Amino acid sequence: MSKWCSQNPAFPEGILGREGGRARTMDPLAKQIFKGVLVAELVGIFGAYFLFRKMNTSQEFRQTMSKKFPFILEVYCKSTEHSGMYRIREQEQEKWLNSKN
Asked: pTM above 0.90?
């Protein structure tokens, strides 16, 4: 540690440590936990992307989602409305009602 840091009360030795501010290596358990969290986040991001893409391209899939998981369809409709595409929900409901008749 430099002489200035050891004499300056703003940088006590407990903050910088004896290494002089160098990063310490993570222990193996912390590395495994970090990698697990990172993988889980990546799986979630790619899963959300492919779910959105499938819902955006397939009307049948949207109809299936409206029956099984209506809250996911609600999130899809709100996200498309937020991006500027309005009346998708109403158009879908009209198509589904007309197809039943």
From this structure: no
Q: CA angle 83-76-97, nearest 5°? A: 110
3-state per-residue secondary structure call for the chain: CCHHHHHCCCCCHHHHCCCCCCCCCCCHHHHHHHHHHHHHHHHHHHHHHHHHHHHHHCHHHHHHHHHHCHHHHHHHHHHHHHCCCCCHHHHHHHHHHHHHC
Helical pair 70-82 and 59-68, crossing angle rounded to 10 deg? 130
pLDDT of the chain, 101 residues: tens digit per residue: 555 455 556 655 555 555 555 666 778 898 999 999 999 999 999 999 999 999 989 988 988 998 899 999 888 888 888 888 777 778 887 887 787 76
Give the whole-angstrom CA distance, residue 77 versus residue 69.
13
